[in-house]
Amino acid sequence: MNAWLDSLESLTDKNFLKKFEEIYYLGSTKPVDENSLKNTISDGKLKEFLIKNEADGNEDLLDFFLLVNEETQDLIVIYSPFDLLDDERIYLNYEKIEEDLSSLPDIDVVK
Question: Which conformational region is residue 44 in: left (phi greater than 0), alpha (psi within -120 to 50 degrees), or beta?
Fold first, then answer.
C-alpha cells in the first residue's frame, strides 16, 4: 500500500477517505500560519504558493493532499514534524477547492 495513503488513514476516519475516488499528494512546504494558508486557498493561489515555497526535508513540513470525487475537491494539510517524537496531525481541512491543481510539478497519485 502507498505510504501516503497509510499516513492519511492513520489520521482520518477510513470512511471519510472512502468518499473520494482519487487522492493526490501535491507537495510539501515549510509550516506557515494557518490563517495565511486559508487566505491563500480562498484567493485561489495555492498552486502559486506550493511552487514558490520549497520544503527542506530537515525541517518540519506541511504535506498537501487533494481528495477528489464527482461532487467536490477537498484539501487536507498534514503537519509532519521533523522531530520523530512528535506526531503527525491534521493542520487544515479545507472543503470545496475550486482551483485547478492538476498541473503542479510535484503532483503524485496516492489513490
Answer: left
- Identity (one letter) of the amino acid at 108? D
pTM of the complete model: 0.90
Show pLDDT as tens, one digit a residue, over the chain (111 residues): 488 888 898 899 878 999 999 999 999 999 999 999 999 999 999 999 999 987 777 788 999 999 999 999 999 999 988 876 678 888 999 999 999 998 898 899 999
Nearest residue to 11 via CA among 93, 71, 84, 66: 93
d(CA 20, CA 84): 29
Beta bridge partners of 75: 66, 94
